Amino acid sequence: MSTSRLDRLRSRSRSAGRRLRRETRALLRIARWEVSRGTNSFDRRTAAVTVVVLLVAGGVFGGLVASGVGSVGVDSGLYRVGVAADSPYHDPVADTSALAARPPAEAEVVDGELRGGVDLLVRDGAVLVADSQKGQAALSTFRDAVARYNDRRLGEEPNRGAAFPVLVTLRYAERDSAPTLASAGGRSVDDGSSGSEASSDSSDAGEPGASGDSGGDGSSGASGSADSDDAESGGTAADSGADGGFEVPGLGSGVLRTESTGSPADISPPFPFGSLVLAFAFLVPMNFVAQAYGGSVLNERVNRRGEPLLVTPVGPGTVVAGKTLPYVLGLTAVSALVALLVGGGPLSVAAVVPIALLYLAATFLAAMFARSFKELTFLTVTVSVFLTSYAFVPAVFADVTPISLISPLTLVVRDLQGTGATLGQYLFSAGPFVGCAAVLFLLGVGVYREEDMFTQRAVPLKALDALDARIRGKRSMLTLAALSIPFVLVAELLVVAVLFVLPLELSLPVLFVAIAAVEELAKSLHVYAGFAKARFARTVPTALVLGALSGTGFFLGEKLFAVVQVVGLPSLTVGRAAFESAGAGIGPAVSPATALALLLAPLALHVVTAATTATGASRGREAFAGAFVLATLLHAGYNLAVATVVSGLV
Amino acid sequence: MSESPSATERVRGRLAAARDAVGDAYRDPRVTVARREIASLRSEKTIVLALLIQLFVASFSSFLVVGLVSLSDPGSVEGYTADVAVTGEATDDLLRAAGTESGIDAVPYPNRRSATLAFEEGRVDAVLDTAVRDGRVHVTAVAPDESVRSTVVVVSLRDALREFERAEREERSAALDFEPLSLPPESTSSPYFGFTYTVLLPLLLFLPAFIAGSVTVDSITEEYDRGTLELLRVAPISLAGIVDGKLAAAAGLVPLQAGLWMLLLRLNGTPVANLPALLLLSAAVGLLVASLGAVVALTAPDRQVAQLVYSVGVLGLFGGATLLPVGPSNAAARLAVGSATPAVFAVVAVAVVVAVGGYGAARVVTGRTAGRMA
């Protein structure tokens, strides 16, 4: 008897293994088709057009760079300065691309005030400024230009001690580790090429242009030697008073917090510009690959072309996996190549792959929803713009705040700077991305079937279809609510990041409402889909049950993700407020009874608000909208109350 | 009195003629195609999506710049004062120079140890240790390693030290051949002024054009792909008419969107000068880019390939154009800010000519394609 059971088990496992092998073979075959289809569509004429367009575009670009016109900035000639050709101020104006030198006769001066013609007038050593924003902006640029001109001319002086009487060595010191002036951060040699060159120069500490490395790459090149003036005139996005900052990316020297020596003009605050630009190189190929992938998926839906694959014994999951595999591998390979080129390590690649997965997942869903190629283009552009900014913007603040870790690109910046990251930080960054990608693929695969693929419906309706495809019964409410957690996390982190720049008094109330709205939407959308598709009877008891299930599922999912607390996000006040309702931020000072109450209170809240929206959803669209607003307000009020209580207790 | 009926009739007749002309234009198959295109954009709500994308791009780039400026020049954003301990031989001179700077509050300390202690205990934000060697002042600055604060502190230190350098240089001016020019007064300018005109405005002006080209590519390749081009060719309209209609719909929307953004900027308190020239420029770029899209789509009807070639081509062309002495984005900035020279208007004229040339090229390619199809 036991042998027969063992046999059954063995044969079952064997058949499972066979099935797995068969599916894998099918997957690989579909992947091969996908690759060959992509290459076949490049016929000779197409290839010729591609080459011509690329040559023209590249030729225009390269030709202009080679001919040296490329040093002209986008701001060239923005402000007009009336200055005589023999004035000592003519040279600084002529040297600065944003300023256009005009003859003083063009100025219209009435009663000693500048009325038009030019924005600034230099006359008898005094400066007349037009009474406008533009006049003030021109003055600010002019002031910088004169300071830069002075520095450049002084750089040519033989008497260095008189020209640059002050030499500054800048060091950074941590305060709690008892640093002294002597021990505070010794000279560390940068591994980047330009950086090491700079630090070797700075040993003869007389050259103002040869500052150390650190973030001073922008100004170190600009204020020193005579030929460097056009470097400054490049893309000055904002003509801020600071003449270092972010204008000129000094690629290669991304290491911060090292010592630097030079004249006072050379010191500049830490800023990870170089690494940031390099990190952006990872995002560019993704847009192109995602575009091709979306086109390929939509292609299956045009003229029922995907039907032959659908009728094969292979499941939709395998078909989608097979179609996606080449693109995932391609993007991984490209990322590895980019990493190799810009000097990133395995961490960079590991951080970029989750972004790539989310790009592909979002594009896949967009292609499943789109009615036409036009619509797909708009959807993919939306996806690209959103994901690119979501990944890129927080990374700007990589050295400023831990909240920047919401984007895996921050890990790339840290990797390029040599800072590295812990496993916890990696999971915090990449986890939501991978989770979102998985859920999006899951939703997309749900509608990868005949009745959805070859029909034309508006995108929101398709989205409801996709949610509905995942509803198997009332219990699905539980799982769908839990599955929404990664999106909630991403959305909330985005809200936190955007509100981070606002003052705290303003950002906290907005934050509470925004976060409540995100969570309520996540808890109610699938319930609404279920009612809209007539899956459930439109009665109050059903709605209450569905709401309770959805609220519980969300609560459980939230608890699962409360791990984010470990990473140190709570060190931010805003971050703490965002996750207060997760109930994990309880300090040891709280008594067990209060702790239990604080643990169960969110459950009650989620159940109540989800039941509210579910009841609304059962009555139709308008009632759903009203109930949603009500639930959001309720939720926000609760969060505010808890925040007050907890901060009062601790 | 006798004249009045005839006058009325004349007006009526003229009205009828105008109505006929409009009716003819309305019945013009090219207009029909253009209307169909716009209707499909409207039914798919993609135009709303397009506007949202542009708004998102604009707001995020603004957000980025506000963040960048507050990092590189925090003093401009908030009135922050750094407490600095000054010690060493040149303490008095440095204190005098730092007194004129608002962002810094310098306090003398008798020696390096007491200054370091004050720094560690958090009583001061930074330490400046001075020493005079070979007639030069060597300053060792210690700033806290505390992310945002260190940025703010370093910027304040730099301003104070530059002032100090200026004062020290003054004392040594006898040994210099070049007498430094005196600086113009400080300005009250917002650091975002230049950004608004050089980045934000060109972005909003030209983004609609890129989207228009992409729409043209999709629209034409889709007709091929779904086999509907054959159906259209049975209708009494030439391929050139079809392409004309699609171009008109895509490129026509460009100046409308651009105009909307310019009006919004004006409402937002950003004066925009030379509006007609700006709209003409955006219309020309729109027509050129849409024509490029049509050429690419007609020669490479596979949608994926066409989109790829189109995007790379447009990026390359626009990247190249910004490198010109007066590129389209620089021309737009100068027009809008009111610093336009005749050269800038010439650029607009050239853009119009190039756009018409591009449209002509699209017509030639359309003719060839029609010949091949027949």
From TrEMBL, chain A:
The residue ranges flagged as biased composition, category Low complexity, are: 182-211
Q: Which UniProt keywords apply?
A: Hydrolase, Membrane, Metalloprotease, Protease, Transmembrane, Transmembrane helix
User: Which Gene Ontology molecular function entries are recorded, alphabetically?
Assistant: metallopeptidase activity
Name this protein carries in UniProt: PrsW family intramembrane metalloprotease
For this UniProt entry, which segments traverse the membrane? Answer: 273-295, 325-343, 349-369, 376-397, 426-448, 480-502, 508-531, 543-569, 589-611, 623-646
Lineage of origin: Archaea, Methanobacteriati, Methanobacteriota, Stenosarchaea group, Halobacteria
Disordered: annotated segments: 179-263
Question: What segments bear the compositional bias annotation Gly residues?
Answer: 212-221
